[in-house]
Amino acid sequence: MTIKSIHGCIGCGECVQACPCDVIRLDPDTGKAVIAYPADCQICHLCRMYCPVDAIEMSPEKSIPVIVAWG
Amino acid sequence: MTSKNHPTHPNRRTFLGLAGAATGLAAAGMRAGWAENRPSVAAADIVGNVHETDVLVIGGGMAGLFAAVKAHDAGARVLLVSKGRLGSSGLTPFAKGFFVFDPKTEKGSIDDFVAGVSRSALGTNNPVYTRQLAEHSLARAKELSDWGFFDQTLCHRPFLKPIAERGIPRLERVMITDLIRQDGRIAGAAGFSLDGDGAVLTLRARAVILCTGAGGFKPNGFPVCDLTHDGSVMAYRIGARVTGKEWNDGHVTRSTHPAACYDAWGDMFDRVPGTNGVEIHHDLGVDVNYVAYKTGNPLPGGPPGMVEDSAIEGGPVTPAEFRRAPGGPPPGADNDRPPPPPGGPEGKGPGRMGVPMGGASAGMAIHKSEGLVPIDDRGTSTVPGLFAAGDALGSHMAGGIYTQIGSSLAGSAVQGAISGEAAAEYARGVDLAQLPEARLAEIRSDILAPLTRSAGYGPAWVTQTLQGVMIPNFVLYIKKESMMRAALAYVEELRDHHIPMLRAADLHELRLAHETANMILTAEMKLRASLMRTESRCSHYRLDYPEIDDRNWRAWINIFQGQDGTMQLEKQPFDSWPAFG
Question: Is B362 within 8 Å of chain A by CB?
Fold first, then answer.
């Protein structure tokens, strides 16, 4: 995973707006942030840094294979 | 022949098998390639909205901020549209160094500065833009300071201050997919909203400024995954010239958690931005790629510019004046680069993040070196009414190599402001172009096409395939003709037989589909330009042409779409403007 978990979300939507890669969405039923597209997380932590209640926990692991210039 | 066995139309049993395989792949982290499409949004129900403005600014980073503010202050109605949010998308949020040429504190003159950059850039810089950076940087820094930019770690709020004060409207989380050209000049742009039930947007404008940044191949270890060269590809499709695609940014990541941008950059993303004065480098980056190519991993040296010259024979050359002493710069001196591994200035233990690994910013050229070809010093492109600024403009401000530390961010501010004034001036002299309904309907159809396909290639899978072709060290960085021709064959296949069959199940995947198409076209540009430049210079290194060739290559490469739709390339001599401009 990339964004590891979201606990204590207050539904302000700041992380949705702050994410450059459109990884997070607000659940239409609960109004709380959910990790909608984890594979597209670039692990930049902007969501975590913008979150006003420190609800977001990050992991350094990408959830899909990582292609680099040499192995 | 029945459709039962047609490879593009799997029957139900085959499909269930495919779906099962796809589920298994998903569990293993792989993404499905070809599959049935089950859209959660109906393309036919997506509304269409039209907006009108004088100057349309596309992009919400440093260049877009100043373009919008200065176009407004020059009397234009401005609309700012961004794929993400103002100040929290693109590379701007992560850039912490802002170059300022302050005559009161600098020992040398602006002439000295331009001469120094030009020596390091080996002729690849456009000195008009280099000088402009120095002349305007202090004024832009003062404005940013007034808005609170240098008092924070996150720049949305300081960016919002001047935009809100001026009442400049914003459309955010909107991906622009098309520039619209009518009667030979720009007429606006079109795209779609990522939110709610979606919306197709037609943005009519007298002038458009591309502040869309550059991009990469959604690489791992550099926060550039939302930048997919959308601006230069859209502009190319309506006839603009694009330059600089052969240059390579050489940022590295680390072998442990290579995709973790934040972790690899230490405390950099948490820092408050600061200013710095003249500090001219020749930061290759690709020297590390060369060492890895020759010796494998782990690398004997550190990050870019820190590999000792004597370690390996051959490879990219740094001019003697700009070679760094073994051991590299003092920690913290370099605001554009991550701290050296391991045991960097934060005192992290050796091996915490592992050894350097290339390709972190794969697909990106040097800041300000790739993008639209300017015909003057105001970011005017070869399409009337279309301007560009920052990393979307191929100004070659710094050249095909990192030269001035902090110039990436400052250059975007300076160029954004100048293009804003230029676009406002242009807009005063023209009317809104009329847009034929049939053309708008065609654009809408193209935008939504991936949602309407009953089956197709997943954009994520196509992107991964592209990454596998383009990112390896022996393709993108240590270049040679045979390998680039092979890669080009792959890329042409993706262009001709995969872009037309991309699927999208929702608005997020629709964005990925358009981004994937843009990256594929960029890959073609990078390969063709790299094949054409039969020499090595700055960040472009050819294993089969390792020397600088001043006789033939004191020239930039411009790319444009020919009459028959194929990609054409031409030389433009250094220190010149486009001949036809």
Answer: yes
Residue span of the structural domain in which A24 resides: 3-58
| CA distances (Å), origin B397, targets A4, B128, B411 | 40, 8, 8
Confirm whether A69 is domain-assigned.
no
Classify residue A54: in a domain, yes or no. yes
The total domain count for chain A is 1
Is any Cβ of chain A less than 8 angstroms from the Cβ of B250? no
pLDDT at B272 over 80: yes
Which domains can be identified in chain B, with CATH numbers?
A: 47-247+363-428 (3.50.50.60)
* Residue A42, domain member (yes or no): yes
pLDDT(B349) > 60: no
CB B179 within 8 A of CB B238: yes
What's the CATH code of the domain at A16? Answer: 3.30.70.20
pLDDT digits (tens, 9 = 90+) for B446-456: 999 999 999 99
Contact A67 B468 (CB under 8 A): yes
Which residues in chain B have their CB less than 8 angstroms from residue A69's CB? 289, 292, 357-359, 362, 471-473, 476-477
Least CB-CB distance to B259: which of A19, A37, A43?
A43
Average pLDDT over residues B35-53: 96
CA distance A17 to chain B (A): 6
Residue A51 identity: C
- Alpha carbons B491 and B493: distance in angstroms, whole number: 5
Residue A13 placed within a domain: yes
Q: Do A18 and B88 touch (CB under 8 A)?
A: yes
Q: What backbone phi and psi angles, to 5 degrees, belong to B37? A: -105, 130
* Record: contact B29-A65, CB cut-off 8 A: yes
Is A43–B258 a contact, with Cβ atoms under 8 angstroms apart?
no
Q: What would the pLDDT profile of B18-40 be if each residue is shown by its tens digit?
A: 333 444 444 445 567 999 999 99
Q: CB neighbours of B561 closer than 8 A, spacing ≥ 6?
A: B236, B237, B239, B567, B568
ipTM over 0.90: yes
